């Protein structure tokens, strides 16, 4: 018989509760959403690409928004508006600097020799994303942070801080902003309503990225800013999920699995990003809770983190010289932002 909720010798007459000692009986609902025939589209922070790569490695058709990371919910909202409302890139969306053309709603490292080249590429990206999204039945959205930069020429939120070659030359065109809770919640609701309007049969799965912020441009410590950022995102999507208004919207606890883990230090690389140990652990949980039984071979007890289960979860690595070399190569590629190639080397370590 399960013990009652108590403090000292006093007990509460409450039957529905959960404590840290109950973690081997996790209170997450299992949903049979992902199957071998599913078509998944992911958008959001760089963790969304990790998710995409893992699903593809399991022979699940998955596609990530091309050549773009969306770190904040406003950027995701704007991007989906571009797709659903078929908005084309305009001259006002481009910034010229030192003979190159930039679009702050695309990957910041991209620069083009001509205005038309930039417009053509950016419109092609949106068209390609629309085609893949239209053919998908599951949308995974990873929320990364709340620190943003506003492009004052078109009054749109940048994907992230522009690269130095543009930012330093045109500093007066950008304004630093921190999204507030109500802004975040409004953007998430707008995303859900847009998707449900255009794709009413789409299943939407939100998650907060376990990747820490690389830096903050506020006057606060990076730990303070990261904590605030993740807390606001988690609280906003949590409030929406808890109200149970949308029957096709779910939350997956990737952030919690990594950050509240006793092995947190083993899961994050030197930049505070989830390494392949973390990705494997998180995605095995994802498949358990969101896929049909034929896609996962683990039971709930095997997914609860415990020292005695680490070996069962394939986390033990024989760090031979070759593996050390692969690990260093993977970390370097991840640092350079080459996540797909980095993931290839990580898989060599954990196969």
What order do the helices and strands follow? EEEHEHEEHEEEHEHEHEHHHHHH
Pairing-aware structural class of the strands and helices?
alpha/beta
Number of strands: 12
The helix content, as a percent range, equals: 40-55%
Distance between the termini: 41 Å
Shape: globular
- And the CATH topology of the largest domain? Rossmann fold
> Based on the structure given, which CATH architecture of the largest domain is correct?
3-Layer(aba) Sandwich
Q: What's the pLDDT, averaged over the residues?
A: 86
Q: Main sheet: which strands, in order across? A: 4-3-7-11-12
The CATH class of the largest domain, by name, is Alpha Beta
Q: What fraction strand?
A: 5-15%
Total domain count: 2
Give a quick precis of the structure.
The chain contains twelve helices and twelve strands.
Offer a few descriptive terms.
351 residues; alpha/beta; Rossmann fold; 12 helices
How does this structure look, described?
The chain folds into two domains: 31-89 and 124-150 and 180-307, SGNH hydrolase (Rossmann fold), CATH 3.40.50; 317-351, no CATH class. α2 (73-84) packs across α3, α5 (181-198) crosses α6 (222-243) and α11 (321-335) runs antiparallel to α12 (339-350). α1 links the parallel β3 and β4. It is an alpha/beta fold. The protein has helices at residues 46-57, 73-84, 115-134, 164-167, 181-198, 222-243, 254-259, 264-267, 276-290, 300-303, 321-335, 339-350, and strands spanning 6-7, 10-11, 39-44, 61-64, 94-97, 100-103, 138-143, 147-151, 156-157, 174-178, 203-208, 249-252. The strands form four sheets. It has a five-stranded parallel β-sheet, with helices on both faces. The radius of gyration is 21 Å and the shape is globular. 41% of the residues lie in helices and 14% in strands.
């Amino acid at each position: 018989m399960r013990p009652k909720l108590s403090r000292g010798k006093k007990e509460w007459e409450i039957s529905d509760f959960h404590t840290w000692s109950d973690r081997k009986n996790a209170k997450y609902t299992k949903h049979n959403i992902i199957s071998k025939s599913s078509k998944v589209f992911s958008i959001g922070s760089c963790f969304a690409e990790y998710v995409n790569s893992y699903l593809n490695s399991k022979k699940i058709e998955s596609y990530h928004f091309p050549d773009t990371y969306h770190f904040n919910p406003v950027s995701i909202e704007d991007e989906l508006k571009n797709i659903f409302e078929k908005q084309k890139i305009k001259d006002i969306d481009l910034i010229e600097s030192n003979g190159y053309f930039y679009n702050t709603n695309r990957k910041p490292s991209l620069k083009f020799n001509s205005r038309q080249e930039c417009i053509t590429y950016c419109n092609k990206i949106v068209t390609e994303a629309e085609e893949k999204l239209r053919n998908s039945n599951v949308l995974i959205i990873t929320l990364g942070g709340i620190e943003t930069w506003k492009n004052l020429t078109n009054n749109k939120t940048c994907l992230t801080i522009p690269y130095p070659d543009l930012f330093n030359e045109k500093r007066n065109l950008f304004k630093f902003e921190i999204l507030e809770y109500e802004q975040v919640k409004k953007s998430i609701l707008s995303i859900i309503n847009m998707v449900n309007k255009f794709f009413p049969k789409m299943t939407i799965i939100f998650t907060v990225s376990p990747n820490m912020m690389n830096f903050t441009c506020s006057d606060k410590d990076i730990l303070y800013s990261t904590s605030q950022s993740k807390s606001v995102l988690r609280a906003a999507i949590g409030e929406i999920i808890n109200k149970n208004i949308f029957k096709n919207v779910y939350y997956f606890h990737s952030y919690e699995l990594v950050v509240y883990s006793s092995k947190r230090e083993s899961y994050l690389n030197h930049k505070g990003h989830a390494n392949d140990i973390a990705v494997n652990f998180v995605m095995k949980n994802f498949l358990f809770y969101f896929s049909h039984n034929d896609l996962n071979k683990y039971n709930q007890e095997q997914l609860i983190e415990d020292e005695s289960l680490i070996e069962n979860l394939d986390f033990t690595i024989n760090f031979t010289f070759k593996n050390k070399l692969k690990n260093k190569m993977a970390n370097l590629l991840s640092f350079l932002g080459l996540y797909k190639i980095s993931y290839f080397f990580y898989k060599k370590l954990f196969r």
